[in-house]
């Protein structure tokens, strides 16, 4: 073609494509949550076919619309890694968790390994619960079944049974059970032992694995540190179930605990063993035909003395903490009852150096509450004993329990990011409540909310706390259950103060 014809106007140049007339057949209202995920009838294959189309305003010099296929697997993994694995920085070592090893161990292993299957099971389950996606939940069930078969196979092999990734997979599968727990089933009259029994079964398996790992030779520092962190979770599991700690698991020093962490660890072991003895004693006492039998009164007196000794040790531990680990007490500029935030207990709140320090203090408070709960129940039994002033001691015990509950309630707003903290010149800090939100989902990560799980469950099982404290703590546990996608916690929270406690005589 002669270019001069266009130059002198004899011919008109052909027009390029009109981008405004291009038909966009599919667009996402929420880029991070495809429509198919919001459709409860979607299947896994449907979810894999989702397309995300860039808005026309983002198109520059091309007539070809960019098209990106985003599989369900990628959405689930991204959600899980972002909200459940990404741990805040600068936390004290005493609150370190085994999940910090999940990502590094997973990246160093091949796909379709037992850990890979466990991560896919949990990520699809948590994503499915959070987004109400039946497709994700179905994939999670499939991956869980595969991971469970691979785990059981590994446990029959003496070498594989001590492998790091197998231990991590077992711990992840325990959380999977919590995540998919049927929240609509009845919980009346059931203990946390019953509700979380599938998860606790995995914890029992991890305990057996830990025993085998301790007997293995030539352990790496990586494996030894993993043992320490898994043991911490298993101790909390035993405390929830009022079970004693096996003798080979008792000494935290053998697992790398040291300093203040070791001192708190020893208190945890002592409380766990005491709760087991108290549980057995209260059950035996409740079945007596002659409740005032003398040998049982002596047993309750010994239990009371032991509880007082453990409580004194916990108080000394808190007193010996360095100044940099302590919290500050503030009064809200605007009272919490002004309607701005009903997630704040009262005008007195705490702030901490880090979220990890808040977690450390709340685990300490949960332990002391458990000890005082045993003391209160023992005093209730001893109240009819002549020459024993159980009533006066009970008043003192309840007073300390309320103070511990006050402190726990005062820490929650800081941990759930409910406060606006204005640090002025010098040491002046102004604290106000943020505007109320119907849900904290998306604003608080599961890795943050998880620090509250165990203390809140322990606290809501304490029968002698005032009703307003129990109601507040149960409501916050419900918030936390949503944040961490945990059906067991939701059941405990929905049942209020009745769950995990049993009758008056049983811790």
In short:
The protein has 507 residues and is mostly helical. It has helices at residues 3-7, 35-38, 44-47, 72-85, 102-107, 114-131, 134-155, 164-179, 192-195, 197-215, 221-240, 259-286, 294-319, 355-382, 390-415, 446-460, 467-484, 487-494, and strands at 51-53, 67-69, 328-331, 348-351, 419-423, 429-433.
What report would you give on this structure?
With 507 residues, the chain is mostly helical. The protein folds into 3 domains: 3-70, no CATH class; 71-257, no CATH class; 259-507, no CATH class. Helices cover 55% and strands 5% of the residues. The chain has 18 helices and 6 strands. It has helices at 3-7, 35-38, 44-47, 72-85, 102-107, 114-131, 134-155, 164-179, 192-195, 197-215, 221-240, 259-286, 294-319, 355-382, 390-415, 446-460, 467-484, 487-494, and strands at residues 51-53, 67-69, 328-331, 348-351, 419-423, 429-433. The strands form 3 sheets. The protein has a two-stranded antiparallel ribbon with strand order 1-2. α8 (164-179) packs antiparallel against α10 (197-215). The radius of gyration is 28 Å and the shape is globular. The relative contact order is 0.09. The model is unreliable at 16-62 and 497-505 (pLDDT under 50).
